[in-house]
Amino acid sequence: MKDTPKKEEKKIQKADIDAASVKLSPIAGIPPRIYLPTIYGLALLLLLFLLLVLPGIRKPGALLEFSGFPSKSAVLVDGKYSGSTENPIFVSSGSHQITIEKTGFASQSLELEVSGRILGSAFFPTLRKVGYSLKPQDSELILSRAFTEYLSWSLAGRPSALYQVPAVLSEGMEDYLYSLRDQAGSKGPSLRQFVASALAATTSPESARDGLKSAGLLATRGIANPLGLLELSRTLMTSLSQGKAGLSWIKDLGLLKGEVPAVSLPNNPPTPPKSSILLGGHRFMLFEPLTITLVGQAPSGAFFSYSLDLGEFGLASAEVTRAQWAQFLDANPFWDPSNRTVLIEKGLAEEGYLADWTGVRDGTPVVGVSWHSANAYCLWLTERSSAYRVLLPSEAQWEAAATLSPASPAIWSNKAASGPALAGSQGWGTSGFADLLGNVWEWTDDWYLPYPALGQGGYGDFHGSEKSVRGGSWANAPGSVDAYSRGGIPPSHASAFLGFRPAIVRK
Questions:
Q1: What does pTM read for this prediction?
Q2: Any idea of the CA torsion for 199, 205, 207, 210, to the nearest 10 degrees?
């Protein structure tokens, strides 16, 4: 059988393509030359409707643009936060209550009837200008709140691509100076006090620029003048030329190259306490008035020595134990771990508060306590004493005890440890103290400043958002923490490494 030869396929030529044509058929007897323009026209009308009309129907309203002082105030629409006066805020059509508020100022409420155009609102929204002027109520609060925020940003570390340091202190200073316009004779912090506080809180060149601008505003009262700038220069030079602290601060900020002479550690330890008293189940070692040389360790690890005068005080010989804490809980059920949710809502604790509390009453230091709860314990002891006020120790009081020679025994990490040891289990120092180093970190009463040596003479109402802790814990390796090591912890924080010991002063 012979194969049938295949029919050769015809190749398409360019002439075939040029000769080809497409013809649309009529629809319902309507020729293409009529229905095609109609379809295109309807599609264009639909697109215009979607872009120019529908947004105004679905979301009618107007953009509110705010102008007034203070800037960056919070805007609440019908009681709900909607943004700040720095940016326009869209408000739907209808009657609304607009409230503008900012810390330290009396809030201002406005009743607005808002309406907007239908056509083109997505591209050309209705703009409505809203003026406001908040009346100052608390000038000190304005500036102290700005300082707290400034220090929080300063402790957050160097800026990166993820975040930049906002100019919170200079903006707060502008608000502060504005609030003083109608207050005759009110000066607030002196320039020297402000500069000392700002230097103590500054840890980066970026925050330093904000602090310098703020000091310039205070020196000139917001109106540039040579005398004010001259006073600022003189104040800065005086503050930074005291000992070696100024040079070390400049080096820490990366503004100075080369080596800076090291600050020598004190070689004159305080006089040991010669007597003690029993109060509330604690033995307090009593110190006579003294002048102490402190070593304010900075975040970089650099030392900044400075001196302080301390009046008579006493410090507990050991940390507060679980048995002593249980007595406090018996008398103050508000601080019981069963009430943790309420304590967290009030900002007095975090989830770690007494997380491992079992109610065991022994001589192991209590851990998992927030600063607020430790302070409440001290207030409870104060109520039981007619002669003494019980409080958490200052950094200076704690360091006076921790630098006594010879040092008290320390409890550091070891492979067998899973928590703190019994208070005093490693023995007691000749001065009557146990576990000042190791076992558990200890809360102090002071707000944490990165450079306390530069903050001497600073403004008393300025502070950060973290409390200083000292001493190290059972989880720290030997040699990693000493009597000068310090850190900052939010007062609501609680952990398995953190406890406290109380101090006393006469009422």
A1: 0.83
A2: 90
